[in-house]
Amino acid sequence: MGNMEYCLALLERLVAIPSTSQNEEEIAQFLERHLREELGMVTSLQRVAEGSCNVRGEWRRAGASRRLLLGGHIDTVPPSDRWTSDPYRLTVQGDEVRGLGAGDMKGGLAAQLTVLKRLRDHGYTLDCDVEFLGLADEERYSTGANAYVEERLKEGGVGQDAFFIMAEPHYTNIVIGAAGKALYRVDIRGRGGHAAVPESGVSAVDVMAEFLTRVNREYRAAYERGEKASLCCLRVESDYPGYSLNIPEHCFCLLNKQLLPRESGEDFCRDLERIFTQQNSEALLTITPQTPSYPSYRLPKTQKDISTLLRFLELEYRHTPEPRINQSVSDGNILYHHLKIPVVLYGPQGVDFHTERERLLLSSLESYMDQLYHYLRAQYTS
Asked: Which CA distances in Å does 59 have to 67, 126, 156?
């Protein structure tokens, strides 16, 4: 069986296994068997939650000073009711492969596993520790990445010389950093009174309305100037027991703040407190961080692993993917921040993922596997 046939057969099996966030146990068990039986790896499953697991497979080399990590997340978003075909059946149409998760990111996982099998079948032994990692819950709260971090820190980390090529669907560009994001609950406490006499109390709803207007005015302008990442209020709610003429004493909102690499959640909270103080309100403000939270990160193009990969692709394949700072988050944000692993997102090209039109481009899949195979041979074999 050729490499493409092997990869597509594996991808067909991966797509056929439903693995929405928090329901990854079956696919983790499948991958654990595959890593152990097909690749001869030392494997383990890590329970993340009921029905949810991470999976790890390793080739360990005595005395190795370097570690190569491959893989990514094993969950998908739920299929919407707009799918007109079976989302769990892989179909090929010309240069496109369709199926839930085919683009994001089971195609990338299948491609990397195919490359590792090709290396093993050809008798190549990599002169580093190799770890294939399948993480749960990336499409939701990244509980899998956080659980892996906790486990790894207990084991002493990943070493000083590690590099993670995460097979997210980026082929024409290589993601070398990403905006972060943070979710905050903002509570405002006013003072009750009779609603027919509004001056008898302090309406938390009115204070919140003015506060959000001020925040949006300031942050929208900074966002449009490119100085700050975006901000969105996701929810506003008050303690409203039903119709009564009581001034609402409490109101809360949920704010999602994207974070540029130069922004921090702490600075954002200080900004919120400053804006609230300028209102001269008698109400009280409380800001509470929520889950999820992703710190931003940015790797320099000159980082040795990144520059080596880019130079190899250009010289050997005339392939010049653009190094990019992603506007969306991934597990890479968490792994880089907590474990200090240089992480790039580089995989076969997915299109329209998170929709019923999700697909993987076959031409990029074939090219990606060939490039990764020869890159690993050049950089990680003696």
From this structure: 10, 9, 18
In one letter, which amino acid is 241? P
Angle at 23 between CA 137 and CA 142, to 5 degrees: 10
**How far is 195 from 18, CA to CA, in rounded Å?**
52
Least Cα distance to 337 among 302, 375, 293 occurs for: 293
Q: State the Cα–Cα distance between residues 141 and 145, nearest whole angstrom.
A: 9
Looking up tokens 């966030």 gives 21
pTM: 0.88
Give the β-pairing of 250-259 and 359-361.
unpaired
Q: Which of 218, 234, 232, 230 is nearest to 179 (CA)?
A: 230
β-strand 96-98 against 359-361: which pairing, if any?
antiparallel
CA distance 169 to 11: 14
| Amino acid at the residue 90 | L
For residue range 198-220, list pLDDT tens digits in order: 899 999 999 999 999 999 999 99
